[in-house]
Amino acid sequence: MAPIVTTRLTQRGQVVIPRAVREQLGLTKGAGFAVVATENTIVLRRLDEPVAAEFDAVVGALRRQAKAAGIRPTDLEEAVEQARTPA
Questions:
Q1: Into how many domains does the chain fold?
Q2: Which residues constitute the domain of residue 37?
Q3: At 47, which helix (H) or strand (E)?
Q4: Is 44 found in the same domain as 60?
Q5: Cβ atoms 46, 27 nearer than 8 A
Q6: Residues 8, 13, 27, 52: is their CA dihedral positive or negative?
Q7: What residues does 36 pair with on adjacent strands?
Q8: Do 37 and 56 belong to one domain?
Q9: Same domain for 73 and 44
Q10: pLDDT in tens, 34-45
Q11: Does one domain contain both 21 and 42?
């Protein structure tokens, strides 16, 4: 287990992630995080961009499901157009 390091909240509500932790995790400027809070715990989860192969796998699975359900590309285009049309 890595040693525990501390940090403080600034007046502007910012928290500095200590250098040792940034280096350990390979964090760079602009890294995104999901923030989850429970009682007295805050969890920061790094948001990594999906790997192209993972994205392709998801798209492939969605295409197979759409085909099995009988959904055509034109059905999707019509649904998007309908959703964009004001009621």
A1: 2
A2: 1-48
A3: strand 41-47
A4: no
A5: yes
A6: positive
A7: 43
A8: no
A9: no
A10: 999 998 999 999
A11: yes
User: Residue 83 corresponds to which tokens in the numbers above?
Assistant: 């959703």
39's torsion region: left (phi>0), alpha (psi -120 to 50) or beta? left
Q: What is the token pair recorded at 71?
A: 């959904």
User: Which single residue is written with the structure tokens 């961009």?
Assistant: 49
DSSP 30-46: T-EEEEEEETTEEEEEE
8 and 42 together in one domain: yes
* Predicted structure pTM score: 0.51
Q: What are phi and psi of 52, to 5 degrees?
A: -55, -40
Q: Which two structure tokens, joined as six digits, stand for 1?
A: 């287990």
The pair of structure tokens assigned to 11 is 């007046």
- pLDDT tens digits, one per residue of 21-75: 999 999 999 999 999 999 899 999 998 877 788 888 989 999 999 999 999 989 9
Q: Are residues 5 and 40 in the same domain?
A: yes
User: For the domain that residue 4 is a member of, what is the CATH number?
Assistant: 2.10.260.10
